[in-house]
C-alpha cells in the first residue's frame, strides 16, 4: 500500500514533490508521524515546552522532485518609479 502524497515546497527551490506519509495504522504514533511530549522546568515544575519525536513508521526526509516550478518574478509597481527620472532612475547623487 503506497502512502505517498504530492506537496508544494519552496525550499530549496519551488517545486512539486512526492513525499512519504506516516503509516495510518501505526500503533506507536496512531498515524500522526510522531509523538509529542510536554516537559516542565526542573526548578518550578511549570510548562517549559514540547519535544517532538519522529516515529519510525516513516521517513520525513524521503522525497522526490516531480516538477520544478518557475520562480515568481516581483514586479515593481508604478508608484516606486520617479516620474522625473529617465527610465525610473535618477542620475543625480543624493543630497
**Helix-strand category:** mainly beta
**Tertiary shape:** flat
Number of domains: 1
Radius of gyration: 25 Å
Distance between the termini: 69 Å
Q: In DSSP terms, counting alpha (H) and pi (I) runs of 4 or more, how many helices?
A: 0
If you average the pLDDT, what whole number results? 81
Report the sheet with the most strands, covering strand number, pairing sense and barrel closure.
3 strands, antiparallel
Sheet with the most strands: spatial strand order: 1-2-5
- Considering DSSP H and I runs of 4 or more, what fraction of the residues is helical? under 10%
What is the assembly state of the chains in this entry? single chain
Strand content: 25-35%
> Helix and strand succession?
EEEEE
Number of E-type strands:
5
Low-confidence stretches: none
Q: In short, what is this structure?
A:
The protein is built from no helices and five strands. It has 95 residues and is mainly beta.
Task: List its traits.
95 residues; mainly beta; 3-stranded antiparallel beta sheet
Secondary structure: elements and pairs:
Layout: E1 4-9, E2 15-20, E3 34-40, E4 47-54, E5 63-68
Antiparallel strand pairs: 1-2, 2-5, 3-4
Q: What can you tell me about this protein's structure?
A:
The chain is mostly beta strands. The protein has one domain. Helix content is 0%, strand content 35%. It contains no helices and five strands. It has strands at 4-9, 15-20, 34-40, 47-54, 63-68. The chain has a three-stranded antiparallel beta sheet, with no helix packed on it. The chain is flat. The model has no long low-confidence stretch (mean pLDDT 81).
